[in-house]
Amino acid sequence: xxxxxxxxxxxxxxxxxxxxxxxxxxxxxxxxxxxxxxxxxxxxxxxxxxxxxxxxxxxxxxxxxxxxxxxxxxxxxxxxxxxxxxxxxxxxxxxxxxxxxxxxxxxxxxxxxxxxxxxxxxxxxxxxxxxxxxxxxxxxxxxxxxxxxxxxxxxxxxxxxxxxxxxxxxxxxxxxxxxxxxxxxxxxxxxxxxxxxxxxxxxxxxxxxxxxxxxxxxxxxxxx
Length: 224
Description:
Elements: H1 5-9, E1 24-30, H2 42-46, E2 50-54, H3 63-66, E3 72-75, H4 77-85, E4 94-97, H5 103-116, E5 122-124, H6 127-148, H7 158-169, E6 170-176, H8 205-215, E7 221-223
Parallel strand pairs: 1-2, 1-6, 2-3, 3-4, 4-5, 6-7
Helix pairs in contact: 4-5, 6-8
């Protein structure tokens, strides 16, 4: 695969976790679930050495529940487009994107992003890492389906790749705001920061939780 020069120039000097070294001891990944509201876990989240947030979720006004520290912002292509096309207030974090295998994504979103923010750290997961992550997802999905005698949607959440990335660079990973969403859960909104209606026809949230629990057999992952 031929990568555009602009993206090659944005590569870090060394790969993350090079030579098996761990970059961070304790890490938190903060999801966007409305169940975070009222939990008052902000201080606990901020005590981690590194904090990753998903899809550039806002924190101002919700610091008590979700914290304020952000080391990494992990985003899918839809939110990459939002960052590119709108005046999103940027924070001091490393931007991470994973859907770089598509030439269209690279040319229409990621190259323009690198040009728009030349002074920002914008990094990309290797396509091979993403493919292996997908293989792992489908293997674990089959295991869960066999155990529960049911079928789930195929598409993994962005959070899967965020979790896999952090397991490579952290000694331990705590997950916040990853509760399985169902439309019957009327007491909590879909996101903690807006009133958007939740969708369950694309992702299988309960499957994702089971997958993260299975990953805990190999990695120190805790669902808070």
